[in-house]
Amino acid sequence: MSRTTVSPTEAGGTFESRTMRKVGLRLIPFLVLCYFIAYVDRVNVGFAALTMNRDLGLSTAAFGLGGGLFFVAYVLFEVPSNLAMERVGARIWIARIMITWGLVGIGSAFVTGPVSFSVARFLLGAAEAGFFPGVILYLTYWFPKAYRARIVAMFMVAIPLSSFFGSPLSAALLTLDGSGGLRGWQWLLILEAVPAVLLGLAALALLPSRPAEATFLTAEERAWLTDRLDTERRAAEAGQSHAHGLAAVRAVLTNGKVWILAVIYAGSSATSNTLSLWMPQILKGFGLSNLETGLLNMIPFGIASVFMIVWGLRADRSGERIWSTALPLALTSLSFALTLLTGSLWITLVLLSLVLLGNYAIKGPFFALATETLPPAQAAAGIAAINTLAHLGTGAITSLIGVLREQTGSFPLALLPLCALTGTGCALVFWLGRRRSRTGEVGATSAVARA
Predict the structure, then answer these.
(1) 188 with 173: CB under 8 angstroms?
(2) 185, 220, 272, 406: which could join 52 in a potential S-S bond, CB 3.0 to 4.6 Å?
(3) CB neighbours (10 Å) of residue 287?
């Protein structure tokens, strides 16, 4: 029987597997590359700081303040950005975000002191706002529920990979100091921002907005995928009311589940961003050279990159979300606490590896949990709101770590807020699980995940 006459029902899992493999291979590698560059541009200032802070006269507290302002802008512009993406289409909006943040990243190389550094970080946050939740929402347009934990994990592996590959690259770019009349940290910021502009232009050609536009699928595959997603959406929307614009934002912000999920994710978001920003300085404090710092910084992120994919696959196979999210948070919190007990570089490196292993493992299961918990009518604003509210905590802790490090002289003490936040998140996951169990949501969700 030819491809054009085989029905999804007759072909069973073979037809579905072939279709989803095509979608995954077409979209995920490109989106991972985009997010890789996004995260490199967000956290490369952590390596730039090894020489930039001295050149610009930035104190630890001033550097932390600038890092925090990134998230202030991110928070202010994220939900409007996600709503705009629904209005103008994913392809155009994702491209716009990438081109804008690339240009701002290039301009960041020419800051001259604490004030311009803070302004540049604020503008970069505003430019990048909406990319991550926009892509998470975009993936729901293409992947049924049963695939989302592994797909989100595959997409988010770009975060640890950005530090794994970016660490030695950033350390190497610092050696360009003096070339062309620029400092090494300026070359670092410029050369790592240019790919964002190029990828933004490429997105216009490579990213279809919806399955109906997917010329890489056959007509039958497009019809099956569209019907599958529409069926899931209609089933989930049954009995749900719809709101738009400001009403949608109001509905999201008055949904208690959004706030619970935001607090849970705040621990993971804050850990990802603050360690990516501060870990080069933590390791440098053991008397390492810039190159040694770059090479050792790779290790925790490399381990985390592999494990988050393994954990995401496990979460989808089991269909279980609560323990898959809570256990990694518990590991992260405990490992942070144990850093207080050692002054050894190698033990610290092991503990930070465990921190990041747990922290990145929760990404896929958490966002699968979030999309299954929120009403579909609130998906666009809800995903953005969770990420936005979580980044309120990220911005505050980024600034707080700078102040605590300057006041105490100790990075383990400065990291204690992350220990508390991830521990709180772990407890809230179990609380949410009990509530879902009482209302029968877990059984329904698990059945879908196993389908």
Answers:
(1) yes
(2) 185
(3) 8
d(CA 341, CA 412): 9
Residue 392: partners with Cβ closer than 8 Å, 6 or more residues away: 71, 75, 266
Q: At what angle do helices 131-140 and 379-408 cross, to 10 degrees?
A: 150
Q: Is residue 297 part of a domain?
A: yes
Q: Average of pLDDT values for 405-429?
A: 90
Q: What is the pLDDT of residues 361-392, one digit of tens each?
A: 888 888 878 877 777 666 667 777 887 788 78
Whether 100 is in a domain gets the answer yes
CATH number of residue 33's parent domain: 1.20.1250.20
Structure tokens at 11: 């072909």
Q: Where are the alpha helices (DSSP H) in 339-378?
A: 345-361, 363-373
What 3-state class would DSSP assign to 216?
coil
Residue 118 vs residues 48, 99, 187: alpha-carbon distances, Å: 15, 21, 19
**Residue 312 pLDDT > 50:** yes
The residue written with tokens 């059984």 in the block is 443
Q: Is residue 387 part of a domain?
A: yes
What one-character DSSP code corresponds to residue 210? Answer: S
Domain count, the chain: 1
- Which residues does 22 contact at the CB level (< 8 Å), separation at least 6? 216, 217, 221
User: What distance in Å separates the CA atoms of residue 325 and residue 230, rounded to the nearest whole number?
Assistant: 28
Can you give the residue range of the structural domain that contains 283? Answer: 16-210+243-450
Q: Which amino acid is located at 139 in the chain?
A: L
Regarding predicted confidence, which is higher, 175 or 11?
175
Structure tokens at 106: 């290039």
**Rounded Cα gap, residues 57 and 66, in angstroms:** 13
The sign of the CA dihedral 64, 65, 70, 76 is positive
Between residues 140 and 316, which one has the greater pLDDT? 140
Tell me, yes or no, whether 9 lies in a domain. no
Buried b (16+ CB within 10 A) or exposed e, 131-170: bbbbbbbbbbbbbbbbbbbbbbbbbbbbbbbbbbbbbbbb
Name the residue with higher pLDDT: 144 or 240.
144
Give dist(CA 33, CA 82) in Å, integer: 20
pLDDT in tens, 48-84: 988 999 999 998 888 888 888 888 888 888 778 877 8
Buried b (16+ CB within 10 A) or exposed e, 60-99: bbbbbbbbbbbbbbbbebbbebbbbbbeebbbebbbbbbb
Distance, in Å, from the CA atom of 340 to the CA atom of 336, rounded to the nearest integer, reads 8
Give the Cβ contact number of residue 44 at 10 Å. Answer: 28
